[in-house]
Amino acid sequence: MLAGYVSADNVDEAKWLYERMPERNLISWNSMISGYLRCGEVEKARSLFDSMPQRDTVSWSVLISGYAQRDRFADALALFQNMQLEGIQPDETILVSVISACTHLSALDQGAWIHAYIRKKQMKVNVILGTTLIDMYMKFGSVPNAMEVFRAMEEKGVSTWNALILGLAMNGFVKESLATFSEMKECSIVPNEITFLAVLGACRHMGLVEEGRRHFDAMSRKHGIEPTIKHYGCMVDLLGRAGKLTEAEELIANMPVPPDVSTWGALLGACKKHGDNVMGERVGRKLVDLQPEHDGFHVLLSNIYASKGSWDNVHEIRGMMRQHGVIKTPGCSMIEVKGTIHEFLAGDKTHPQSEDIEKMLDDMAKKLKMEGYAPDTREVLLDIDEEDKETTLFRHSEKIAIAFGLLTIDAPTPIRIMKNLRICNDCHMAAKLISRAYDREIVVRDRHRFHHFKQGSCSCLDYW
């Protein structure tokens, strides 16, 4: 009865029954914890867990998974560490949740430790656990580790191949990504909708328009998969990035499904990239009307006006943002050092080592100047003088994170940075030159993809 109420998400009836049970065993305790979690009552679930006279693996699994599903990743990791201290061996379900938590928290060291634990205990890596490990390593830019997991898996599902195809593309290995798709078909693995999103994404990352068209057409013609709004969005982005803005807009107009804001947003971003201010203004106005609470669309439209010096229009858009209570998402870069995540905002001086970071930034500026670096002040879309623009540029969050990485991470370990927004042109150029000046590998994951900087070049080949 208790399990039935929980399955029906009727937590009040489940609680009523649970409190009147003359005897409670582990199954009833675990069921009630699961019921609270299903209904979002996480604190009640934790309180019940803490009051249990004894726990089994399922008890830990239910709560750790619940934390992960509710995006409480730090709590999931902390509970896993408590579980380790009590000597409880985790099962595959727990490990999947904890690895996912490491991925979301940008905690590569902890994720790699869990992988080492799996190998030490000689645990069987099934499809779900293996795919989660591949996804984690790919999202940290650790492509060799992801490939190692893939090759060692005895059984691979379509989700495993999808994770590899998508991960390779995201890290700039587009040729290898498309070759993996061909290998997948040769192994008689039937691709699904997600596979084609990954393949179209690979084409998008390198501007392979004709190949993208071929795969898009093959979806329905060869594989009987009707493209969804996401597939059309990929094609619009592919065409837009390649500068085929008119064709991209025509595709939106002729889509069999209504375009969503993400599809229009891809076209707006392409207009900004290629300097088509006329189309950009038209599309931007449409998006601001469609989703007035979205900060990114306001900012892109404001940037288009600023790039042509239309400061009255810039002030108008900023006024609309204030009117609707829209706040621009600040740029934030994260870097993991010795198991601790450090976060930096643009112009950040709050870090305990900020004095050393400032000295490193000065050293970086000197070496960049010797490398021929000239700040791209077009990225600073403010009505201020050039000197102030240069100062603003050099305090972007990713540059501060790189400086901290140079101070705290010894070579040859790569400096890995996670950025919540798209990396700007100036930071991209600076990172390339810093990688050469300091002979360091720098890996930056921005909102869209990975950038592997090494000896003055980037894996994206300056196409992003």
Automatic annotation (TrEMBL):
Q: Which organism is it from?
A: Linum tenue
Q: Which NCBIfam families match?
A: PPR
Protein name (database record): DYW domain-containing protein
Keywords, in A-Z order: Repeat
Care to name a GO molecular-function term for this sequence? Answer: RNA binding
Q: Where are the PPR repeats?
A: 25-55, 56-90, 157-191
Q: State the Pfam families in the record.
A: DYW_deaminase, E_motif, Eplus_motif, PPR, PPR_2
A GO BP entry: RNA modification
**The DYW domain, residue ranges:** 372-464
Please tell me whether the keyword Repeat is annotated for this protein: yes
Keyword Transmembrane helix: yes or no? no
By sequence similarity, the record places it as follows:
Belongs to the PPR family. PCMP-H subfamily.
Q: State the InterPro entries in the record.
A: DYW_dom, E2_motif, E_motif, PPR_At4g14850-like_plant, PPR_rpt, TPR-like_helical_dom_sf
